Amino acid sequence: MKHIFTCIILIITLSSCTNVKNSKTTENQVNKKDSIVIKNIFNTALTNGQSYQWLDYLSNEIGGRLSGSHESIAAILWGERLMQDLRFDKVWLQDVMVPNWYRGEKEEASFTLNTEKYNVPICALGGSIPTPVTGITGEVIEVQNLEEVESLGEKLRGKIVFFNRPFDNTHIQTFKAYGGCVDQRYAGAMVCGKFGAIGAIVRSMTSSIDDYPHTGAMSYGDIAENEKVPTAAISTKAANLLSEKLKENPTLKFYFKQSCKTLPDEPSHNVIGELIGTEFPDKIITVGGHIDSWDLGDGSHDDGAGIVQSIEVLRLFKLNGIKPKHTIRCVLFINEENGLRGGKKYAEEAKAKNENHIAALESDSGGFTPRGFTFEATNENAELFLSWKPLLAPYGLSEIEEGHSGADIGPLKSETISLFGYRPDSQRYFDYHHAETDTFDKVNKRELELGAASMASLVYLLDTYLK
Amino acid sequence: MKHIFTCIILIITLSSCTNVKNSKTTENQVNKKDSIVIKNIFNTALTNGQSYQWLDYLSNEIGGRLSGSHESIAAILWGERLMQDLRFDKVWLQDVMVPNWYRGEKEEASFTLNTEKYNVPICALGGSIPTPVTGITGEVIEVQNLEEVESLGEKLRGKIVFFNRPFDNTHIQTFKAYGGCVDQRYAGAMVCGKFGAIGAIVRSMTSSIDDYPHTGAMSYGDIAENEKVPTAAISTKAANLLSEKLKENPTLKFYFKQSCKTLPDEPSHNVIGELIGTEFPDKIITVGGHIDSWDLGDGSHDDGAGIVQSIEVLRLFKLNGIKPKHTIRCVLFINEENGLRGGKKYAEEAKAKNENHIAALESDSGGFTPRGFTFEATNENAELFLSWKPLLAPYGLSEIEEGHSGADIGPLKSETISLFGYRPDSQRYFDYHHAETDTFDKVNKRELELGAASMASLVYLLDTYLK
What we know:
The structure is a homodimer of 467-residue chains.
Chain A: H1 2-18, H2 24-48, H3 51-62, H4 70-85, E1 90-102, E2 108-113, E3 116-119, E4 122-124, E5 136-143, H5 146-152, E6 160-163, H6 174-179, H7 182-192, E7 199-203, E8 231-234, H8 236-248, E9 253-257, E10 261-275, E11 280-290, H9 300-319, E12 326-333, H10 341-352, E13 356-362, E14 370-376, H11 379-386, H12 389-392, E15 399-402, E16 418-424, H13 429-432, H14 445-465
Parallel strand pairs in A: 5-6, 6-7, 7-8, 11-12, 11-13, 13-16, 14-15
Antiparallel strand pairs in A: 1-10, 2-3, 2-9, 4-8, 5-9, 10-12, 14-16
C-alpha cells in the first residue's frame, strides 16, 4: 500500500497548493471524520446487517418474480411493508403498466443423429412467441453473428438459425464478455425471420460450460407479425454438442417446443421510500435496484441483492444516526428485465414534477465482494469522486472509475446529475445470470453486507460533499 | 482510475529523475513488453487452463489427504506423475517423516436440559488425545480467552472448558478475525489441563453461523502426559446454543466422545519439479502450496487450489514459451496443517546444499478471485515490487503490500530472499476452512484460473527483474 499512500499524500499536497479552500488541517479532520463514519457503517452492516435475512425471505418465500406475475406483486407489497416497518419518512407505490410475458409449460428440445436422440436443455427467451403446439423441426444453420445471417439470406429459408458465438473468456470483467455476444440473444430472432427461417436458438450467455439454459430479453423490433419466429436459449454444453454433431451431419434435424405467450400489459409499481433531507429536502439522491427478476431461478443475485442492499443503505443511515442533508430515496424499480418501464416512469415523473435529482446509485451486478463504483458525471464532480479513493480502498473498493452506471437510473441522466453503478467482483455473475441457478445459496452473507455498506458509504459521501 | 494513473505517472517521473538508470523510453518499452507477456499469461490461463480439471481429480478422486494417510501418498504420487507428464525439466520426491494423527470413528457430543437432549456437531482437533471409550461428561465453564483460564485456576477441576470467543466480523480481511481467536483452538487444551479440567471444547473458527464444526491443529506444548485433556471444536450454532442454555442452567452436563489417536510418524514426501534457468540455473524462485489437507472435506480451497495453481504456473511458462533466466521450482509441501515438516525439511535441505533461493511465493489462502500479494523483502526490493502495481492492477491485483507470506516458505526466510503470499479475496474462505464444506463445488473455475495467472505473472516479473 505504500505507493498508494505516497500518491495520496502527493495528491493532497498538490490540491492543497492549488484549489482547496480549507487549510490542510481542516481537510485532514474532515477526512478523519469521514473515515470514522464509514468504518461505523461497515461495522454495523457486518455485525447487525439485515440484508441477508431479507434476501432469504424474498428469494425463498416469494421466489422468481417476472413483471406482471403474482410473485412480482407479492415482492412489491413486501418491499413497501418492509420500508414502512423500518419507519422511513415516506413510503409509496408509483403506478406503472408493465409487459406480461408468460413462459407456460416447460420447454422441450432434441435432435437425433444416427438413431441416437439427444435431449437439449432449453428455455424460451423473454418476449418470444410460442412454437406451434407440436413444436417446430428443421435443419440447423450455425452462425457466429448477426452479419452472417444477412450474408446467408435466402439460404436460411425453412431453417433454424443457431447463434453460437461464445463468451470471450479473456476479458477480466465478465460484463465485457456478455456485452460482446448478447446481441445474438436480443436481436437474433429479429434478423432471421425476414429470410424465411422458422426459428432461432442461441448459445446461453455464460462462460460456464454446463447444462443450464439462460433466458433473457429479446426483441422483434418493428418487424411484421409473419416474420416473427420463436426463439430460445440452449445450454452451453448443448451448444457445444450440437455444433460438434452438425459437423458430422449438417442436415440433422432439430426440434423444439415452447408455449410462452404475451398477455396484455398489467398494472404494477415502483416501490419508493425516503429519508427527508434536513438541509436540502428538495435535492434527491436515489439508490436502487430492480424488484422484478426472471422466472427460472429466484433472482437472488439479479437483482434481489440490489434490492435488499438499497433498503439497507437507508437503514444503516438511521442505525448510525446519520441525518442526511439531502433527501435519500430508495427505489425498487419494476420491469428492468423486459421493458425498463419502471426506470422510465420514475424519470418521467421526476421530470414532470420538476424534481431536483443530484445523484443516483444502482446495484444490479450481483451481491458479490466489493470492487468499486463506476460513474457518469461532470469533470469537476469526477475529480471529487476520485478524491474519495483513499477513504474507500480499505474496503476493497479500489476501482472507482468512469463507466456505465445502470439501466434503471439511466433515464434520469442529465447534464448535472451524477450517476453511479455499484461494481462487485464479476467472476461468478454470469454462471447464474438469468438461469435456474440464480438462487439464494449462491449469495455469501458477508459479501452481500459489504456491498450494502459500500453503497451506504458512497451515499454518505455524496450527501456530505455533493453540491 | 484517473487518479491512480496520475499517481503512476508522478511516480515514474519522480523515479526517472532520481535513481533509474534507463531512459524513460526504454522503461516504457520494457513495461509494454511486460504487459503483453502478462496479458498472454492470463489469456492462456482463462482459455486453456488446466488447474480446475486437476483440482477436480485431486478433490473428487483422491479427496481429503491428512499427513500420513494413504490419500496423502496417493496425492503425492499424482503430483509427481503430473509434473512428469508436463515434462518439467526435473521432478523428484524429497523424503520427510510426518506426524500421523488419525480421527477414528465419528465423534459424538450432546447435552441435556430439562429432559430435552441437544445433539451437537463436533469434531476432534488435530493432535488431540481421545476420550475414554465411554466419552467424558462434565459441567461446562464458558470462557472468552486463555487468560481467563489462568484466573479461574482450580475452579476448572473436573470441568469441561468451553472457549467461545467469536470471530470479530468487523475485520474486512477475514484472516485478521481468524488470527484474533485461533489461540483458543491451538492452545486451549494446553492451558487448562494443569488445573484439573477434563476436556476443552472450542467454538469453530468461522464467521458463518452454521452446523459445521471446523477442525485444525492444536498443541499440548510440553505439558505432562497426565495434564493432557481431549479437545474438540463444536459448530458456531452449537456454541451459541450451548452458551444460551448455560445461562438457563450453569450446571448442565456436556458429553463428548472421540477415538482419535496419534500413530508413529510415517515416511512421506515433498513433491518438487523445476524448469531450469537459462542464465542463472543456480538461482531459484520457488512457488508452492501444501499437498496435505484436513480429513473432513476434500481440501479444495485448503490447499488443493494452491497446489494446482503452483503446477499451472510452470505450465503457463512453457505454454507461452517463456524460458526463465532463473530456475523456477514448484514445491508441493507435505504436512503444513499439523507439523510444517515439509516446509522445514525443504529449507533445511536448501541450506545444507547451499542453494541460492532468491524468491518464493506461496498460495495458501484459497482459490478465490485475485486481490494482490503480500511480501517480506528488503526496502530496495519492496520498491521494485510496488513499481509493478500498474502492470498487475488491471487483473484485480491492486493490493500489493508488505505482510506475512506463507507458512511453508517461512523457513526459507533470510536477509536476502523475497517471500510472497498470493492474496485472493478472503470473504468466503473461513466458511469452508477445515470443515466438511471445503469441497470442489465451492471453487469457481475462473477465480481459480485467475489466481494461477496472477501467480505466473508475478513469477515472470521476479524472473525478469530480481537480481
